[in-house]
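Appendix C reproduces, verbatim, an entry submitted by the partner laboratory led by Prof. M.T., so that reviewers can inspect both the input and the predicted structure.
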Amino acid sequence: MRAFIAVDLSEDIRKKVEEVERYFSDDTGVGLKLVDPGQVHQTLKFLGNVPEELVEPIKRELEGIDQEPFDIVLRGAGYFPPRGRQIRVVWLRIAGGVEELNALQEQVETRMVALGFPAEKHGFSPHITICRVKRIESEAVRRRLLRKIAELSDVELGEMRVDAVKLKRSRLTPRGPIYDDIYVKKLGKG
């Protein structure tokens, strides 16, 4: 099973993500693959193909996470790689609650590495991917896309409560990935 650990976004935030995506979707000359707003999330750890016998140990490790619920704020757009000529991913920034989110990700990372999953090579970067850039037809189109991203550098998407971490299965289909919750760990005492 292909799997990852993530924080889902609230319905209010997802509606705002959809509005932002519409801003990019009408751009001719850019081949974009938009993320389904109903599936946007903050990945804490990509696990890859997980053998069935590891699902229960993963659940046990997630159950041991000790963190209280917290709020995050989404504000501003950007892209990866930040200094390259190619734009590969357009994302929305998590601008508030970053310390708590980093602490949560560190707990997940430590617990998954203990189970034998490889450590993250590039570090954790709190962001929500909204689209992948497949092609840009010209330098003029690239500049236009950069301007659109810059215009959204301070866009306010709102605040939401992070109160759960989810183990998710990713099923790849011709129409895009489908994510299913396998296990939900509620944050806080209880």
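The two ends are 29 Å apart (CA to CA). Additional entries are available on request from the coordinating office.
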